Amino acid sequence: MTKVTVLGAAGGIGQPLSLLLKMSPYVSRLALYDLRLAPGVARDLSHINTNSKCTGYDKDELREALDGAHIVVIPAGVPRKPGMTRDDLFKINAGIVANLVSATAKYAPSARILVISNPVNSTVPVACETLKKMGVFQPGKVMGVTTLDVVRAQTFLSDSLGADHYSRESMKRHVTVVGGHSGTTIVPIVTDPKLRSKLVSRRLYDSYIHRVQFGGDEVVEAKQGAGSATLSMALAGFQFVDQILRSIHLEKPDVAPLPAFVYLPGIEGGKELQSKLNTRAEYFAAPVELLRGDVVKIDSQWLEKLGDLEKKSLAVCLGELDTNIQKGRRFVQSKL
Ligand SMILES: NC(=O)C1=CN([C@@H]2O[C@H](COP(=O)(O)OP(=O)(O)OC[C@H]3O[C@@H](n4cnc5c(N)ncnc54)[C@H](O)[C@@H]3O)[C@@H](O)[C@H]2O)C=CC1
Ligand SMILES: O=C([O-])CC(=O)C(=O)O
């Protein structure tokens, strides 16, 4: 019996993500909450002939939506328009995330909280600081979702090398993404040295890294003001939730461990990683080990496999990341 609640379920990401969750055999209750339209979306999904029960909740029914949830996914908030950075969304989305996370702590205290709302580099610190302030912070239960960067890193690697010889599917075990989730804080790591040297010898490495880092902008521009990535994000978000669900249900993951943006000092291997990176940034995305749906360990093996360009990208990432993190922390600390 596993209940998943989606907060922001009627939005561009929320709807397709809820559809994918309705198809999951690991979900028995699916609760959809939004300020508008969630009961309609839920009624629509409830006609699908899979076993889970799907219910929608209106604006004033947040408590009911969250009650007993094991996983809470948060894609609530505003998306970018052309010309905006993710950081431009902070003013609105930080408040939304803080409110939804504090309600989750009250009504679903043991839920894993998965933050999709941007800017992830700051909204995850907002979520964690909010929980710390309430005295209920459990570091292994709060995760920023950065899976879309991994999905893009795999797709674009295949595109760069030539999809005829290097299929997208075959890229799945050869690349991961660490750092944060915006621009130069996104650091793709090609873990297979043969593939990396192919990119370098063909002088494709810089353009590859750039495309992964700014893949979100590609979609924002192409949608011409109608929002940012929704369908690829729904798929990526689902892949991440699926890993948590499989872990809760003691099933093996079907993909390599995915990264998540987490609070390092609270997780095994986190402080070590911080010291190896020589950074004061307390939040970082790297592949995580799960136990019963919680993050129990952060991987730093990828550090030993870095090429020169990746080392350079990582240094740039760390310079920027902490500024984003401090912005999120200050937002919560400045509130009485
Ligand atoms: N982590 C990642 O990789 C990605 C993150 N995003 C972010 O996800 C967020 C959502 O994007 P879209 O779904 O495209 O936006 P959208 O505008 O289509 O949907 C957002 C939904 O959130 C709802 N909402 C707003 N405030 C709420 C509240 N207090 N409680 C409940 N629901 C609330 C809105 O009513 C709307 O239905 C944006 O911040 C976007 O930047 C987008 C793509 C990738
Ligand atoms: O670019 C955006 O604003 C949405 C996002 O995070 C992404 O597509 O990676």
TrEMBL record:
List of residues binding NAD(+): G8, A9, A10, G11, G12, I13, G14, D34, N93, I116, S117, N118, M233
Stored Gene3D superfamilies: Lactate dehydrogenase/glycoside hydrolase, family 4, C-terminal, NAD(P)-binding Rossmann-like Domain
Gene Ontology CC terms, in alphabetical order: mitochondrion
Domain Lactate/malate dehydrogenase N-terminal residues, every copy: 2-144
EC annotation from Swiss-Prot or TrEMBL: 1.1.1.37
GO BP annotation list: malate metabolic process; tricarboxylic acid cycle
Protein name: Malate dehydrogenase
The species this protein was found in: Lachancea nothofagi CBS 11611
